[in-house]
Design goal:
By secondary structure, the protein is of the alpha+beta class. It has 18 helices and 13 strands. The chain is globular and about 70 Å long.
Length: 458
């Protein structure tokens, strides 16, 4: 989950430290930045209960061996159960007490160490994003406890929703009720859902998956809980819409269920934190998933392709966008003054800031996105999708064959709009008449990801 500030990307501290995807993209962007626009800082950090990024990292690392408040790192899974990776737990515990020790350990590897060091150096000299929290913020446990109450807005309204929503809602409520959010230490930390250890205070010492009944149901609960947590973080900043995204997955059914879980969570947060009417967006359907992916990878290959090969393709596609990133950062650097003209990028933001009403703001925002698209042009093709968006394509190659990445970039509204979930693939200039990626011969869908941008207070 990230938040856009018109010119910068705001990154929550846990995402900045523990997201493999973010660190990979950030390292690429910062390397390009150092080459073309050294004074540009496209990322900003949001801190919670910490005065610096390093202090935030120290806090997360301190919980890796905490049985009551565990932190399961996706970037550094070795920290959770070192013995499973052939490491000495006492050595890893000592190394995790200091970021410098961790970065110099003999098992972290060059790529992870350099990525963490690069982003630490970037955030060290930048001011933090000032928080603007709600007057009465709710915790994750409170929101989940309300989820299973029949008298809650969610409970009263869910049965009037379309059938797919009712099915996902019933599955979520049943699973969350079994996990019992009122139980001590149950949902204090999201990591517990991902750890295959006994759930807190469960008499049968069962894992979360055993309690809810299946891996697919647990994944749905994780999607719902993560979205609620991200809404809490976004609302604590209160300055911009937030991008909500899900993991890359295969299969429309799983994707639709995840999208519905996101919508239910966003509606649940709004109704609990802001006393807003509980009504999720309901235009999530199989046809939407089939015709309008927010991000999709296609391979020109009929052979079976592994998840690792798909991730390799994503890396290749990200590398394809390097020149586009350089062009955008160069435009950001042209702020005007000292004999240098102010770039269209900044002129667009000036008009957005000066907008006096919603209509003017939308017009300025649409124009700014068109400008950004033109700056990013030259790395692929793009075509109009109906009246509301631009579908963009990037191509790359790899061991599994040529890959096509398609991303839908809709024209946004002021309060709420869908948007690209994967920042690694930049949209390109809009041009009429380009065929849809679905008409390309010899390709088949490999991965498909959903994403959403929403103002959680809207």
């Amino acid at each position: 989950m990230t938040l856009a500030l018109g010119r910068d990307v705001v990154v929550p501290q846990s995402y900045a430290f523990d997201s493999i995807g973010f660190l990979s993209v950030a390292r690429t962007v910062l390397q390009v930045r150092n080459r073309v626009a050294i004074d540009e800082h496209p990322f900003r950090i949001h801190l919670s209960r910490a005065d610096s990024f390093e202090e935030a990292i120290a806090g997360m690392l301190s919980r890796t061996f905490d049985e009551n408040r565990p932190f399961l790192s996706s970037l550094l899974p070795e920290l959770h159960k070192p013995e499973q990776y052939g490491l000495d737990p006492s050595d890893v515990r000592w190394q995790s007490e200091s970021l410098d020790r961790l970065l110099n350990s003999d098992w972290i590897g060059v790529d992870r160490a350099q990525a963490l060091n690069d982003i630490r150096a970037e955030f060290r000299g930048l001011p933090r994003i000032k928080a603007n929290p709600s007057a009465a913020p709710l915790g994750l446990g409170q929101l989940l406890a309300s989820t299973i109450e029949e008298a809650s807005p969610m409970g009263r309204t869910a049965q009037s929703l379309p059938e797919p929503f009712r099915e996902v809602h019933a599955e979520l409520v049943n699973a969350i009720r079994r996990l019992d959010p009122t139980r001590s230490q149950a949902f204090g930390e999201r990591s517990r859902l991902r750890i295959r250890d006994p759930w807190p205070n469960d008499p049968g010492r069962r894992t979360p998956e055993e309690i809810v009944g299946s891996r697919s149901t647990l994944n749905l609960v994780i999607e719902f809980v993560d979205t609620l947590y991200n809404a809490i973080v976004a609302d604590s900043i209160g300055i911009a819409p937030a991008t909500f995204s899900t993991d890359v997955a295969v299969g429309d059914r799983a994707l639709i269920s995840r999208a519905i879980a996101q919508e239910l969570a966003i509606a649940q947060y709004r109704s609990g934190a802001h006393q807003a009417a509980w009504l999720p967006r309901q235009d999530v359907s199989n046809s939407e998933s089939e015709e309008h992916p927010l991000f999709e990878v296609r391979l020109n290959s009929q052979a079976a392709v592994t998840e690792n090969q798909t991730r390799d393709q994503l890396s290749n596609l990200r590398d394809t966008a390097v020149d586009a990133i350089a062009a955008l950062l160069d435009a950001r650097a042209q702020r005007g003054g000292s004999g240098r003209a102010r770039s269209p990028f900044w002129k667009g933001l000036d008009k957005l800031a000066a907008a006096e009403d919603a209509a003017a703001a939308r017009k300025a925002l649409d124009a700014h996105l068109t400008c950004v698209a033109s700056i990013l042009g030259g790395q692929g093709d793009a075509g109009l999708v109906g009246k509301f968006g631009v579908q963009v394509f990037l191509t790359g190659s790899g061991s599994a064959g040529p890959a096509i990445a398609a991303a839908l970039w809709p024209v946004p509204g002021i309060l709420e709009f869908p948007a690209i979930a994967i920042g690694a693939v930049a949209p390109t200039v809009a041009q009429k008449g380009v065929q849809s990626v679905r008409r390309w011969q010899g390709t088949r869908r490999r991965a498909h990801a959903l994403g959403r941008v929403v103002d959680v207070r809207g």
